[in-house]
Amino acid sequence: QVPLVESGGGLVQAGGSLRLSCAASESIFRLNTMGWYRQAPGKQRELVATITNGGSTNYADAVKGRFTISRDTVKNTVYLQMNSLKPEDTAVYYCNARRVVLPGNYWGKGTLVTVSS
After folding, report:
1. Which of 50, 62, 67, 103 has its CA 20 to 30 A from that of 80?
2. What's the rounded Cα separation, in Å, for the pair 76 and 23?
């Protein structure tokens, strides 16, 4: 089991910024990929950004240039810095971790981000 604890969601006006945090109880070196997904009301969950244990990153087209995923290997924490937020970014954001050895796919409970116009 890899418990994931998210924090940092809240209310923000369009153009503002938020930073989400995802703390893992296990060393993130054992997790091949960590990332953020989001789900807006009435929509399917979609990928936002991922980062591998080697530091490679990938972003959805909708957030490129605005969001940045990063990690702190000492704190076993992954961050999502969200800038220039838009109303369409409003969603529940979920932290995700995937592992190849002892394959697993883990999710946090989610944190709500609401962007007002």
Report:
1. 103
2. 6
